[in-house]
Amino acid sequence: MLELGLEKAVSVLNAEGIIIYPTETFYGIGCKISSEKAISSIFQAKKRLLALPLPTIVSNLEQVYAFTQLSSAVRSDVEELAKLFWAGPLTLILPAKKNVSALLTGGTGTLAVRLSSHPVAVALAEGVGEPIVSSSANISGKEPVSDFSALDEELLKRVNGYVNLPPKPQGGFASTIISVQGDKEIKILRHGAVSLEQLSEQGYRAI
User: Fold this and answer.
1) How does DSSP classify residue 144?
2) What's the Cα-to-Cα distance from 41 to each of 67, 94, 123, 158, 183, rounded to whole Å?
3) Of 13, 101, 147, 187, whose CA is between 20 and 30 Å from 156?
4) Residues 39/56, Cβ–Cβ less than 8 Å
5) Cα–Cα distance between 53 and 199 in angstroms, integer?
6) 3-state per-residue secondary structure call for 18-32
7) Is 57 helix (H, G, I), strand (E, B) or coil?
8) Do residues 186 and 180 make contact, with C-beta atoms less than 8 angstroms apart?
9) Phi and psi at residue 41, in whole multiples of 5°?
10) Can you tell me the distance from the alpha carbon of 178 to that of 93, in angstroms, rounded to the nearest whole number?
């Protein structure tokens, strides 16, 4: 099991490898979203059902726009939500462009994106020049992990390396997941660290 610095981790990702890395909440497992081979490897490593989409982390809004197809109303809301809650634990569900793998989206035609507040996660997305998968680093059905020593040995054997640079993941609530409808209408798909009250205070309406 290979410990990686940031530069080497980016090289592994660019070579269609999969790695474990820290986010602000839990350790994640990831790859480049343009590599269907690597995406498939993550499903196998996690023993995850193929029908379940994988979330992603971006380094900036340009990476969001490169892989999503947004109406002007949705784009306006994305820009505002990003200013209000990014970097942080708010995941946006957006219409994916046709170049995004159906394996990544679970056949939903949508892409889940967020900008993490963890510098390592953002640096990896920035380094490869595209979003990276950010699924929790656990075997499906098991709890996410915020302590590196608690990572599943079986999972560790199935990845191409890991990054364990500070700060340590803090655990707590996972990201809130919302589908952005436009005109400040949202659908809450998972309650998490960003509350409905916080979103409502900014004029967003849950439908």
Assistant:
1) P
2) 21, 24, 22, 8, 38
3) 101
4) no
5) 24
6) CEEEECCCCEEEECE
7) strand
8) yes
9) -65, -35
10) 6
Assigned domain for 86 exists: yes
Residue 46 inside a domain? The answer is: yes
Three-class DSSP category at 178: strand
In a domain, 1, yes or no: no
Cβ neighbours of 151 (radius 10 Å) = 19
Tokens of 48: 């995850």
H/E stretch holding 111 reads strand 110-114
Containing domain of residue 144, as a range? Answer: 6-206
Secondary structure class of 11 (helix, strand, coil): helix
**CATH code at 122?**
3.90.870.10
Name which of 122, 128, 92 is nearest 110 in CA terms. Answer: 92
pTM: 0.95
- Express each pLDDT in 80-108 by its tens digit: 999 999 999 999 999 999 999 999 999 99
Number of domains comprising the chain: 1
- Is the pLDDT assigned to residue 36 strictly greater than 70? yes
- Cα–Cα nearest to 81, from 67, 73, 71, 92: 92
**pLDDT value at residue 1:** 66
Distances (CA, A) of 204 to 87, 132, 175: 19, 28, 17
Rg, the chain, Cα only: 16
- Tell me the three state secondary structure of residue 94: strand
The CA distance from 9 to 128, in Å, is: 10
